[in-house]
Design goal:
Strand content: under 5%
Helix content: over 70%
Largest sheet: none
Radius of gyration: 22 Å
Number of domains: 2
Oligomer: single chain
Number of strands: 0
Distance between the termini: 55 Å
Shape: globular
Order of helices and strands: HHHHHHHHHHHHHHHH
């Protein structure tokens, strides 16, 4: 019964998406979520993180469809749902309360729940669920990577992973402590904009099949640069690939392929570190809100990307980053005018 309650909303959503519209599918799956919540409450059980969070995800995507972008494709809806499930699962791990724990505690004897390995088992199960959700969310990228995979491409991806892995593991914390200021973020945005605009002027003479070891290292160093606040990983790799002469389409393909191990590795590293040291007091709610905001911004960016990718030029991204840098600098200037001593000290 517990497994059925967990999977029912997703089963209904997946089936309905095969036979009807996204709106109807989200409504039906959301109703099932509310039904599982009501069932638990009727039996005196606690409100579960997973169905409550999933109901919010379904409602948020429905609102987006009807209020902001009615033309959102079924594919984008599926990615948004899968991304929402991933965010819920990862958020429960970051909060050091894996969502499976609620189900497990109510299903076993208290003596079993008090055993030392009980919590660890729930961490493992929830982590496996999170990894599966991430793979499903990135299924298009994974499928493309597997379809095009060869020994040469595997070597290129592995080589491109080395620089960000070394820099991220050894320097991530010093970078966050010393460079995470509004001024350095604005600088990173400006430098990234200039790099993207200049790189996109390079003639498009190469395809992804021409990529070699030097190209892999360039993409790897670009991903390492993305650890600097204000520098986008995707923007850095696109700029590096375009500067090396790859076509815009193949630059996007290379950027996606080298992203998979870096994203997975960064997620694992962050999760392990947070699980070891725990969250600061009263920080679980802000982190959850941050995850929700990140999910919403990712969903919103799909519309913008669809508009600017018509010619696949990097210029719109560069202009957007310059505008964002201007906003950061204006806010920093206002802060300096209102409290110059505090600003100088920071």
């Amino acid at each position: 019964m517990t497994l059925f309650l967990i999977l029912a909303p997703y089963g209904v959503y997946a089936f309905m998406m095969l036979v009807t519209s996204a709106t109807t599918s989200l409504l039906a799956a959301g109703a099932v979520c509310l039904g599982t919540i009501a069932f638990d409450k009727a039996r005196g059980r606690s409100l579960k993180i997973l169905p409550a969070g999933t109901a919010i995800v379904f409602a948020g995507i429905l609102a987006w469809l009807h209020l902001i972008d009615p033309a959102l494709s079924d594919k984008a809806v599926k990615v948004a749902v899968d991304g929402g499930i991933f965010a819920i699962s990862l958020g429960s791990l970051l909060a050091r309360y894996p969502f499976t724990l609620q189900y497990a505690v109510e299903s076993v004897h208290p003596e079993i729940a008090a055993m030392p390995g009980f919590m660890r088992a729930n961490y493992i199960i929830t982590s496996a669920w999170t990894a599966a959700a991430l793979l499903i969310t990135l299924r298009t990228e994974v499928s493309d990577a597997v379809h095009d995979m060869s020994l040469r491409i595997a070597e290129l991806i592995a080589l491109s992973f080395v620089p960000p892995a070394i820099v991220g593991y050894t320097l991530e914390r010093p970078i966050e402590r010393r460079l995470g200021t509004p001024g350095t973020i604005a600088l990173g945005l400006v430098v990234g904009s200039v790099a993207m605009a200049r790189a996109d002027r390079t003639p498009q003479t190469r395809t992804s099949h021409d990529a070699g070891l030097v190209d892999a290292l360039c993409l790897g160093f670009a991903q390492a640069c993305a650890l600097l606040p204000g520098v986008s990983r995707n923007g850095a790799t696109l700029a590096a690939a375009r500067r090396r002469g790859f076509t815009r389409e193949d630059a996007n393909k290379l950027s996606r392929h080298v992203a998979l191990p870096v994203i997975a590795g960064a997620t694992l590293l962050k999760t392990v570190r947070l699980a070891r040291r725990g969250l600061p007091p009263r920080s679980a709610a802000p982190i959850a809100l941050g995850a929700a905001a990140s999910f919403a911004s990712t969903l919103g960016s799909t519309w913008l990307i669809r508009q600017v990718e018509r010619d696949r030029s990097l210029l719109p991204y560069a202009v957007y980053r310059l505008g964002l840098a201007a906003v950061v600098l204006m806010r920093l200037n206002r802060r300096a005018e209102s409290d110059p001593y505090t600003t100088m000290a920071s």
